[in-house]
Specification:
By secondary structure, the protein is of the alpha+beta class. Helix content is about 25%, strand content about 30%. The protein has 16 helices and 45 strands. The strands form 10 sheets. A 9-stranded parallel β-sheet has the order 29-28-26-22-18-17-16-31-30. The chain has a 7-stranded antiparallel β-sheet with strand order 1-2-3-15-12-11-8. A 7-stranded antiparallel β-sheet has the order 4-5-6-7-14-13-9. Strand 11 and strand 12 form a beta hairpin. Helix 6 packs across helix 11. The chain is globular and about 90 Å long. Bound molecules: alpha-D-glucopyranose (GLC). Alpha-D-glucopyranose (GLC) binds next to loops.
């Protein structure tokens, strides 16, 4: 271990292996500061690995491996709170990761904006944005303090370095802001900054390394990859639930999961059903199961303060709720009215939460949807009373209610968790600062525990709004409330890509947009996009125009059906890619530069992406547009390749191409040397077709061999962990004599679904 004391700071460097090291920076007086609430990294620590060195420079220090610089840091300082944020009294530690002018920065989790992150400040503080956010909005629902830098290495080859700030306190990343910032300025509300440095020749290695540290993404059950349908306000009763279920089947539009938002509850109270509108929920769920649907119920962390409400009474009795500064249960208003909040950082509170969730599982619910878990609170009860009395004073003294008052009122919901006080397992008080960003993560841990107890051999399904590094092990994530606008549809691509780059691959937006009325064309274009996104759920808000796939007449319904069906046709491909992602951490949905790092042009393309390494998608994101300018990358930077148009069978070449994209077409292309396995359409993931098609693009050059990976398992259980799965690779060779197909079996622990295979080569 390298330890070095600079006047006021203690620096420690420890190698975990050749590629990963840990750097801790702490202010001397606070050497013992710990926030051990953050889950530890998963890489076994190999203390003092030789080769890693810290060396001093005139303005900071450099981390080196084998004598070569890996990262250079400057401007180490301690900042008083008021210079950074009036709301937080205490110390902020600050340092700058110095970068070369031509470097690029990616990642940082759930962020809007283009993929290259320079020129903005990003904050890590989980926050409910209410759906109206802009291209520059920050922070959003979840926090992943991990970024990736691409920089020319000293040997002139490209190098990537990932930096994971293993600190859950509020933090800020000021990324290459012109003359004001010539690197990444890292500021953390803590006297300590623990940074994991992950080096790699390729960006994929860095993302892999990050998921080695924070956990590999879960393998979802197959049904989680189907089309999911949801709306706040609907179904409003049992009849409507059955009607929606029948409508999908009657219209031949595939669907796997129906969601029950808070309207299903008795006065928005968790773990209840409104008895008049939803009598006998078990029998309703049974009926939906018989029609091959899965049921997902919403659960908010806020428990209504109401004596006689079983969940509240039991939580009180077990004393599981977060406290306020006066030591009383913290009370805040959310959907159900004034609520209290389980203290998920405590094991006993998690156990209690799991037992509440078990009731839903007993009723037959298949998945749990964790919403409002930033935690999002409209008003803190004491906070609003205090402000109201101050305002009353001001008004009665005829004081001027000026701008500062306006700002204060506007920031109520931003600051309403400030007075939350948690308790550690040892019974010590813990400031909310240390917990805030971890709240949803621990809620997911508790929810998973319920699944583990009730269905130990089944894969759980948890959908979360908020989260922190590591959430990829437990939950799928949707990008929170958005709006039914073209801008939000476009942003949903960047956000999903960005989350994947940040180790969280099972993501997607509210398809069609949450707030506001969707227009027919936008819904159709968004369904097209959703059909290839990792997580595919249509969801919208109360009192907005219905956005069922059939809501706007036959013309749109037919196209929507075609793309939702496409999703199901592509399941063999998508499921294989999810398995690979589960193993490697490399996201299913990838920016072009992840596959074509040597092609400079790919770095400026944010609205196209690849699924796996073989399928390129260029969604139409402009209203009224019937053509799409598509960039098709060059292999190895300059080698022209062919790209097969999924729809027409035409071959296109690397470079910019204008593709016809009338409303019924979202351009999809298959990379040269690759193939896509798919089947005939089905109505839900439980329906299995025995024919497997493989669309191949062997290209026109010398390379005529195509390799197509394929995975299958039972889609439901954890058996794959014991080896009950099939993994192989089709080797398809095209020659003058025809097509030769071989299956190279790599793991033979399950009988895969197909009995017939057809290779489709449009040539
Ligand atoms: C929040 C969620 C949204 C949900 C609504 C009502 O706004 O983000 O998805 O529909 O609450 O529960």
């Amino acid at each position: 271990m390298n330890v070095s004391h600079e006047e006021n700071f203690k620096l420690e460097l420890e190698g975990l292996d050749r590629k990963i090291s840990r750097l801790s920076v702490s202010t001397r007086p606070e050497e013992d500061y710990v926030n051990d609430l953050i889950p530890p990294v998963e890489v076994e620590e190999k203390v003092g690995k030789a080769g890693w060195e810290l060396s001093r420079t005139s303005d900071g220090f450099t981390v080196e491996y084998s004598g070569s610089p890996v990262a250079k840091f400057t401007e180490l300082s301690e900042v008083s709170s008021d210079r950074v944020d009036g709301q937080n009294n205490g110390q902020w530690l600050r340092l700058v990761h110095k970068l070369a002018d031509n470097s690029r920065v990616f990642g940082l989790g759930e962020k809007t904006g283009y993929l290259e992150k320079s020129g903005r400040v990003y904050e890590m503080w989980n926050r409910d944005t209410n759906g109206f956010y802009t291209h520059n909005e920050d922070p959003l629902y979840s926090s992943i303090p991990f970024y990736i830098v691409q920089e020319e290495g000293i040997d002139q080859t490209r190098n990537f370095i990932g930096v994971y700030l293993h600190q859950a306190e509020r933090s800020r990343f000021n990324v290459k802001n012109g003359e004001r910032m010539d690197g990444v300025g890292i500021t953390v509300f803590s006297p300590k900054a623990t940074l994991y440095l992950i080096a790699g020749e390729e960006i994929k290695q860095v993302v892999k390394g990050y998921t080695r540290l924070t956990g590999k993404p879960l393998l979802p059950p197959k049904w989680a990859l189907g089309y999911h349908h949801s709306k706040y306000g609907a179904p409003g009763d049992r009849e409507e639930a059955l009607k929606i279920a029948k409508d999908f089947r009657r219209r031949g539009i595939p669907c796997d999961a129906l969601y029950f938002d808070i309207q299903h509850m008795d006065s928005n109270k968790d773990f209840t059903w409104d008895e008049a509108r939803f009598p006998e929920p078990e029998s309703l769920i049974d009926q939906l199961h018989e029609m091959d649907y899965r049921v997902v119920n919403i659960v908010d962390p806020g428990i209504k303060e109401e004596e006689g409400y079983e969940v509240y009474d039991s939580g009180k009795e077990n004393d599981v709720f977060v406290k306020d500064l006066e030591g009383e249960d913290f009370s805040g208003s959310v959907w159900a009215g004034f609520c209290v909040f389980p203290d998920f950082i405590r094991k006993d509170a998690r156990d209690w939460w799991a037992s509440q969730n078990e009731k839903l599982l007993d009723q037959g619910v298949d998945g749990i949807w964790n919403d409002m878990n930033e935690p999002a609170i409209f008003f803190g009860e004491k906070q609003i009373k205090r402000i109201a009395s101050e305002l009353e004073d001001k008004i009665s003294n005829e004081d001027h209610l000026g701008l500062s008052c306006k700002q204060r009122l506007a920031s109520i919901s931003e600051n309403n968790t400030n007075s939350m006080v948690h308790e550690s397992e040892e019974g010590e008080k813990v400031d909310h600062q240390k917990v805030h960003n971890l709240y949803a993560l621990y809620e997911a841990v508790a929810t998973e525990q319920a699944f583990e107890r009730k269905r130990p051999n089944r894969r759980p399904f948890i959908l979360t709004r908020s989260g922190f590094s590591g959430i990829q092990k437990y939950a799928a994530k949707w990008t929170g409330d958005n709006s039914s606008t073209w801008e939000h549809m476009r942003m949903s691509i960047y956000m999903s890509l960005n989350l994947g780059l940040s180790g969280l691959p099972l993501v997607g937006p509210d398809i069609g947009g949450f707030d506001g009325d969707v227009e027919p064309e936008l819904l159709t274009r968004w369904i097209q996009l959703g059909s290839v996104l990792p997580f595919f759920r249509n969801h919208s808000s109360l009192d907005t125009t219905p956005q069922e796939p059939w809501s706007f007449g036959e013309k749109y319904e037919d196209i929507n059906r075609k793309y939702i069906s496409l999703r199901y046709r592509l399941l063999p491909f998508l499921y294989t890619e999810f398995f690979r992602t589960h193993r490697s951490g490399i996201p299913v949905m990838r920016p072009l530069f992840m596959e074509f790092p040597a092609d400079e042009e790919t770095y400026s393309v944010s609205d196209q992406f690849l699924i796996g390494d073989s399928m390129l998608v260029a969604p139409v994101v402009e209203r009224g547009s019937e053509r799409r300018l598509v960039y098709l990358p060059y292999e190895d930077g300059n080698r022209e390749i062919s790209w097969l148009d999924w729809w027409t069978g035409n071959r296109l070449e690397s470079g910019y191409n204008v593709l016809e994209a009338p409303l019924e077409v979202m351009p999809i292309l298959v990379r040269e040397g690759k193939g896509i396995p798919y089947t005939a359409p089905v109505q839900h993931t439980g329906e299995v077709r025995k024919e497997l098609n493989i669309k191949v693009n062997p290209g026109s050059g010398d390379q005529k061999e195509v390799q197509v990976p394929i995975y299958d398992d039972d889609g439901e259980t954890k058996g794959y962990d014991q080896g009950n799965y099939f993994y192989g690779e089709f080797i398809i060779e095209e020659s003058g004599e025809g097509t030769a197909l071989e299956l190279e079996v790599k793991h033979d622990g399950y009988e895969p679904f197909w009995s017939e295979i057809e290779v489709i080569n449009p040539d």
